[in-house]
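Co-fold these.
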Amino acid sequence: MTYLEPDLETAPADRIESEQTKRLLEVVQLAHERSAFYREAWDSAGLRPDDVTSTADFRRLVPFMDKDAVRAFRDRTGDGFGGLLCVGPADLTTVTSSSGTTGDPTFFSEVWPGLACAPLPAGYLRALWMMGARPGDRVLCNAAIFRGWIEDAFRALGLVPLLVDTWMGNWGEVLRVVEQHRPVYAQLMSPNLVELEHLAARHDLRKLFDSFKAVSFAGEPLGARMRARLSTEWGLDVFVYTSAGDTGLAWECSEHDGYHLWWDEVLLEVVDPATGQRVAEGEVGEMVVTALDNDVAPLIRYRTGDLVRHSTATCPCGRTSPRVWVLGRGGDETVVAGRAVLPQEVWTAVERVDETQTGLFQIIRPTREVERLRLRVGYDASREVDLDGLAGRLAASVADVVRLPVELVDIALETEEALLRRGSAAKVPRVAKS
Amino acid sequence: MTLQSVNEAALRLPRQPLFGISWWYTGEAVEFAISHEDVARDTEWATSQLGATGLGYGDVLIPVAGPFEGGWIQPFSRAAGALRATVAHADRFAWDAGRVEMFTRRLPVRVLLGLPGEVASALVQRDLLANVAAVPVLLARPDAVSPLRAAGAACGVFALIGPAVALTTSTSPGAPLAYDTAEWRFEDDGAGELLVTTVGPRATRFERARTGVAGRAAGDGLVELHLPA
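Predicted complex below.
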């Protein structure tokens, strides 16, 4: 059985529609009654909650919002929660915050007394079950805590966390623990991959990892070449997950084809970024989400800035929650000599080259439109590297993928470790001003 | 909906007796299992310690930690919950100094627990210390005490000693740290290293085990640490 909650994970479309509509109407009433942010925004837009009587009304009447609007409310009023709270701040169980990659972190406010784990860790439960983790199994703990004690979710599922430091720099010790305790699951992030690449020269990772039923990968997309290395060479079944637009988590399933957004947690819309009109399934649009299971600080018609394709068709895995395929962030698009370049394209080009296969890079751009494509790329310093030759091969690879003349591509090399130090929580900003 | 249902689904599964398996390091790794009962008793002690600081409804606790430190730190998170306070999480790295500062600027933080040297130094270097130093109860790890006090920030001390924790809210240099005598006994080996013996019904027991921490026993339930300069 791969479903922790089969009746919910495979719910039919009519049930999804009716339950989502019921929750939408409740959330709209709640937010207008208790949230200063929504009351102000909706009153100024002339929205009366009683006018919203269906999902169609919701889509037609409720205005979009975004992180900048929350930050503006926060900075104008001094309310650290951006006016989103529908409960008193003293009633919060936990406050976690975003990675801060794009500015001062914003809050995730949680109330969960009496439950085994907080909302964000709870987002792991169905996924862990799907990946094959079962009571009594041992699992490695996560590497970072800024989103809370994820290990509470492991314990709720009857798993036993191995509490060893899994941040980068300690994976020699982690491998010792893996050999001794034979865990079935771990979470990996980009910094771990850099270190494992180095350790692979001295350890038989395929043998060490043969106890794993699955690993998850989070923080940013996983490049195709690195994914193949993890699965083919190290024998790992990798499940990538991402944020469901700050309303929860969106996980790959066993099909490894898109991320599921749980229908009972979030209403997904995909719209034209310019017009706000819905786009057809399969077309590229901006992901807009509404939290259906958050009466504390719900995001409602929240524009994520993520460009996605989507499908509501039942997945071959049997789940009926919609899937998205993330193409990048709209704001990350750089126009080089009139040609639009996305970080994902650069990623493909960088990981093609052996010395930079971990895919660590930054696009350096003082403005969105530039005349030359300047890249800062991290290379594997544990091997002998001809830096001039590497820069030339990288420039050629990038020029080929993004279809720019090679003379318009500038490469600045630094070690992977130096580049990682430019990042914040386990990821490197893919676009930097300098 | 999701949160309630998925928690209930998980809790229908068989429970496991262990909270986790953890390690401390003396040059060699020392492994110990932690039971849920161990954590429940540690939470009671942590509740008494945090309660004595005045932490309660309307206040915020920031534990600065890594997930692997759950055996030591999570009892304090749970204690904050028992006291109806709010917990705000931050990581133990320099890159998270901004998050620690941001929380102290935006939330009514009463206790900041486990601030490590790396974060303390980053706060000082980035001129972010003012709001952090204004937190009523600032409990620094041993390697953070010197940079904080040098920068003018008064702090108590919070230390992981082998499988146990010890703390003092006193900001006086040299103040001894208290530990839970129902669970542990500390002695020193005569050469300046603390040794730990299990007293309570822990999942893993130790008898005069090396901790790798420099200090001396200072009377019933107290230890003095040799703090890094």
